[in-house]
Design goal:
The chain is α+β, with helices and mostly antiparallel strands. It has four helices and six strands. The strands form three sheets. The protein has a two-stranded antiparallel ribbon with strand order 1-2. A two-stranded antiparallel sheet has the order 3-4. The chain has a two-stranded antiparallel sheet with strand order 5-6. Strand 3 and strand 4 (53-56) form a beta hairpin. The chain binds zinc ion (ZN).
Length: 120
Amino acid sequence: MKTNTIKIGEAVLLKFAARHGQKNISINPQTHCHEWLGAKNSAGYGYVKIDNRVIRVHRVTYALHYGEIKKGQVIMHKCDNRSCCNPVHLESGTQIENMRDMVSKGRGHWQNSQEALAAG
Ligand SMILES: [Zn+2]
């Protein structure tokens, strides 16, 4: 997955925050998901174009709140809502963890996914 290796620079983060901030976000009162109202790709992930690069919103949001995304790191949605960019709903993992996470989610509510992962 070549998209995993994209490094989001500080300049891009600042441009994103300045241009978009919270204005393209609708907060779902039930799930507390910050649903992206701007452009979305075919997979349902919100994205923005900054300096001719397509930046996925959940990744830039994660980087803004938690710092740089390392090579090979994927940003996962604990809430299973791909358009969500609530930093509390995002966590980083590897591609393998992401696959295991998706499998475990098939068995129960997302809040149990950590226990499911721990149990293997
Ligand atoms: Zn969410």
